[in-house]
Amino acid sequence: MKYVDLHVHTNVSDGTLTPTEVVNLAVQKKLAAIAITDHDTIYGIEEAKLATRAQRENGYELELIPGVEISAEYKKKDIHILGLFINEKDTHLQEILSNALKEREQRNQKMIDNLRADDIDITLDALLFDEPNTVITRAHFARFLIEHGYAKDNNEAFLKYLGYDTKYYVPRNYLTPKDAISLVLQAGGIPVLAHPLLYHLSLEELDVLISELKSYGLVGLETIYSTNTGFDEGIIRRYVNKYELLMTGGSDFHGSNKPRIELGSGMGNLKIPYQLVTKLKSYLNKK
Predict the structure, then answer these.
(1) d(CA 193, CA 170)
(2) Residue ranges of domains in the chain, CATH in brackets
(3) pLDDT, position 119
(4) Which residues of the chain carry a pLDDT beneath 70?
């Protein structure tokens, strides 16, 4: 049986491993395929492709799926649309993600200013953690706050400083879900709702969300996921069947920023079969 991981982050966004290191780790773990899905950026894909070619020359065939994780706003909540099998060379995709990156940078500076106003000695350079090309997210803020003693862990960092209800938080101007899905589709990709159960919606509210996204062109639901417990996967499978969607699965690997989550295996609970990739490819071929 071949296994895959279709939700992976590098240090181009808020992971801690370079794209090359992620590829090498995937080979070490004997995965058949991975999708690089950094937040609102595709900058890590080319390096990952080069690393994959190098591994192929060494005799290991790892399939690299170009992807992205796009933030969108739904009823004042932040939801994430994965784009799998995208054409990262698509100029419209590049333009929209570049604009989103600029808006994110402006928002980050405002949050820095808010924290500094309360004598928290934080700077933009400090948040880069010696990775000048990284896309800064709230995970970077949390890492800084923990390392400098302002919070003991991620939960406290978000509760005191980074959560929606804190005085330091600055909202972003997100794409709409419709625009995010359209962006993935026009770039030749497959739009997937990432980790549906993490939005803390009731099952009825989640049904409404999925129905709406389906009308915009949603193709898949991330069904196999690191934090699933109990009947979680079964719940998502019912929505997959109801709305005739495809299943995907991913660990949401971030390296040491989410130390409990391992590439390919999540918290030890994941085995994502290559069969899911086969079905995604079949959909693209029919399309």
Answers:
(1) 24
(2) 4-93+189-285 (3.20.20.140), 96-162 (1.10.150.650)
(3) 95
(4) none
